[in-house]
Amino acid sequence: MRTIGEAAAGLGIEAHVLRHWEEVGALTVRRDGNGYRVYDDGALEQARTVLKLRRVGLSLPEVVAATAPKKQEAQAVVRAKIDALESEVARTRQAITFLRHTVECRHRYLEDCPDCAHFVRDA
To answer: Which of 15, 39, 100, 102 could tie 43 with a disulfide, CB 3.0–4.6 Å?
Structure first.
């Protein structure tokens, strides 16, 4: 059993983050007889899951949905995030290709290069 401060320190985050996660329904923590949050192994594992999902790019509403009891709904949220990340990777690859070309381009001005114009038109 850990206090909120101990749990937060163990996760490398601030205690207010754990409180916020609990407020929005991303984390469930039981209370002791005095009303203090008590982080048992289950709550710590749940907090680690929330933290990992946040670090891979899910918003808190997405985390709540991705950890929902209905697996089909949770999978839909994760699939949507995968699609968004894959689109972002494709845009990043296109940007790298364009920038590499501009570095290696023999033309002084990008407007004079037919390849650069092609990249710009396809943007």
So the answer is: 39
Class of domain 1-58: mainly alpha
Domain boundaries, the chain: 1-58, 68-123
- What whole-number distance in Å separates Cα of residue 1 and Cα of residue 38? 6
Q: pTM for the full model?
A: 0.76
DSSP bridge pairs for 30: 38
Using CA atoms, how far apart are residues 37 and 56, in angstroms rounded to an integer?
Answer: 27
Contacts of 80-89 with CB under 8 Å at 24 or more apart are 81/56, 81/57, 85/57
Q: How many CB atoms lie within 10 A of CB 35?
A: 6
pLDDT band for position 123 (cuts 50, 70, 90): low
